[in-house]
Structures are given as C-alpha cells and as structure tokens.
Amino acid sequence: MLDVLIIGAGLSGIGAARHLQNKCPEKTWRIWEARAQMGGTWDLFRYPGVRSDSDMLTLGYAFKPWVGTQTMADGASILSYIQDAAHETGVAAQIRYGHKVTHAEWSSLDACWTLTAVLANGDTVQQRARFVHLCGGYYSYERGHQPVFAQQDDFKGELVYPQFWPAGLSHANKRVLVIGSGATAVTLVPAMAQNAAHVTMLQRSPSYVVSLPSQDPLPMLLGRWLPKAWAHTIARWKNIVQGMAYFQLARQQPAFLKKYLVGMVRQALGPGFDVRTHFTPRYNPWTQRVCALPDGDLFKALKAGRASVVTDEVAHFTPEGVVLQNGQPLPADIVVVATGLQLNVLGDVAFAVDGVPFEPGQAFSYKGCMLSGLPNVAVTFGYTNASWTLKADLIAGFVCRLLKHMDQHAYREVRPTPARPMNAQPFMDFSSGYVTRSSHQLPKQGDHGPWRVPQNYLLDLWGLRLASLKDGALRFSRAA
Prior knowledge:
By secondary structure, the protein is of the alpha/beta class. It folds into 2 domains: 276 residues, FAD/NAD(P)-binding domain (3-Layer(bba) Sandwich), CATH 3.50.50; 194 residues, FAD/NAD(P)-binding domain. Helices cover 29% and strands 24% of the residues. It is built from 13 helices and 27 strands. The strands form 8 sheets. Strands 1, 2, 3, 4, 5, 6, 19, 20 and 23 form a 9-stranded mixed beta sheet that branches. Helix 11 runs parallel beside helix 13. The longest helix is centred in the middle third of the chain and has 25 residues.
C-alpha cells in the first residue's frame, strides 16, 4: 500500500514528487509512467524547432530556478532540466516505466484506490494507494486531432504529424506545407525554413502572434547585485504580473489589445504584407492562446522569402500537393498536419467509486484540482493563459497540505461535495478547437467560491496555499 501514487513522469509528475519529498518526507509514493522515458511532452515531441511557448522563469519549477539564457527554451533543454530535477534528489529511482494505468477502483470500506496498469509486454499489474495524483497532462499522447482530407491517400510525398515526427525525416531543399496556425505551426515554419526550399503555412484563419525577446536580460542584470535566488524570484514575479496584466487587458479592453497586437505585426512585416488577411484573427485576444515568436523568427522567415502564409482551406489532395477551396494548387514534397491536440480527460483512466463508474463530464471542479464525487484524487491542469507549471506547483503544494491535514485529524477520505445545486459553466473559457471538441467530456465550473477556476495565479495562490481547508466543500471522513 502506497500513500500516494503519481501518474505521469513529465514536468508535473516530477514536480509533484519533489513537493512530496520536501513537505511530506514520511509518505510512501511512486510514479507510474506509461512511456519508456520521463519528460512527458518534452520527450514526446521531436519535431523541428520544438520549444516552450511560455517563458522559462515561470515554466520552470519554483524550487529549481531556470539558469539558461533562453526565454523560450528548446525542447531538449527543457527535457534535460526535468531529468536533472528527477535525478538530483532520487525521484528518478521511484519511477516505474511502461505502466499505463487503465482502471482505478475506489473502496470506501478500505479507503483506498486499486489501480490497474498494462505493462509494455501486455501483462497487468495492480497497486493500492491511499491517494492518487494525476499528472499526465491534458492531451492524448496516442493520438492528435487528425482530420481526414479528401483524397489525401493520393499524395505521393510525406504526410507527417508533429506529435509523431518520423526519425530521420529530411526536409532539406524540399517544399514543405504546414497546415495549421497555432503554436506548433508557428514553431515549425521558421525552423524548417532554415534549410527547406520553401515553407508555406496554410491556415483556415489567423491566430494572434507576438514577437518576444529570446533572452531576458533582467535576471542577469539583477544577478550582478543580488543573490541568484533573489534575482530569480524578482524576475519570475515580474513575468507573472506582466502576464496577468496582459490577460486582464484582453478581458477588459479587447478591441484596444487587438489593435495593439495586430499593429505590432504590421510594423514587423511592413506595409507590403497583407496583415489584414493573414494576421488579423476573427476572435478577441486570449479567447485562444496567443502564439509567441522568439525574436520574431516567423516574421524574419516571411520577409526573407523563405516562408509564406496562405489563408484558405484544403479542398482536396493531389499526388503533388493540395488544391485549395479557391482552386489554387499548392505543390509540396512534405505536408505537416499541425491541426491541434486531442484532449485527454483524467488520463484516459476509467475511474469507479464503490463500483459506480465516474463520469468527469458530470462533475464540478474544486479549485481546478479536484472533482466533486471523486475521493482522494488530485488532477493537475495548468493555466491556459500562463505557464503550466505555475498552477502545477500550487496544486502539488496543495496536495501536501491536504495530506498533512488529513493525518493531523486521522481522516481517511476527502471528497469534494457541493453544498447546494449550482449553475454549470464551462471548465475552460477558451474557444480553441481542442477545447470545444471535448467540452462534453470536461468537468464543469460552478457559480461560486471554490468551484470556480479563476485562471489567475494570485487568486489560486490564496485559494490553494492559504485558504482554510474547512470551507464546507471538502467532506472529510475517518471511518468506513
């Protein structure tokens, strides 16, 4: 019997384990990871130019300052950072790889979970645990959003998906077509344009893009006069507050921010570029994620003629490429389908409570980290408007705080339970495709108090780290 079983050995899972080590050293715990390596997203994604789209001062752990010079680091550097965090305190030794959790059964009589995992060889193994912390991220590693285009089987070139990038694929001196306009697409285009014959980004509609410096001079500047830990903390808080300010501006003055963001693109690309067609979204800022470009790399590729943007839709594929709805052919040797993710609710684990299947789409989210009716389970789901790790760190700390509270009062079970009926609201106030496609599977927000998901670091800092656990929403029990 374990005290805690962590599912997932990516950025969130390693962080959760470090929090348990530091704050609950008496607890027994282990990490089950479905894949053969740690790192999660940063081990899975291998496409050209893969990098963070958040600044590393906030994407990095609060307990392990990021010391690199890159503002938005490349995937290999982030993976190395996660591996260092796992190895330097012995967390890595507690990871069991090739353990894909498929079922979790709660027994109120025993006050524990029995989890079943399928191993790489097809065998199954079970583990009992008092508490489960889901840290497997929010999207499926096994499938992305892969729309089927008319006649795509006729294409004679390479058809690839960023999530499953073929090892050894060369795009040197080839014509590349990237279908998509999100964070993955705007990363791929400038990276592949460095040695491709030409790269075309084909988008149905534009996304917001903003150029950010590839290096943040503030930590180095502060480091000349202050201890490194102080310099990191100040610079990190500067980025947190700045990000929150932009998001609030987007909510309160969307027209102003839209004009500002589009104006920055127009200034970067010059008067000869059709910014109205290709970089003026139909939606308001931060109703979908804003894509960050380190040093404006996409703009540089466009101005140099190594890349281009086309705004239209695919009518059908041909052996030589695609034909657009307007009849224009786009020849390509490689077509990259960067059309988004497939949301993954509760890690595709089938949960049951005392024999009754648990339906996450019918549950309410408690502070964005637990679900009504699901006892002794925490779910890490980061911010959509800021770095994932900011929320992951808060949730990991909250889990430790909750476990200590239960020990102090001899509680065996904690179950979030609404005190009265609530009006259900969407879990994520976001219009991105991966959210709308899976909205029916997501838990709901309530209309008050701890059942709201504020997407605000300061509010969560209070709610998860400081607010009383005796809030009437958490139901604790001692006896079966």
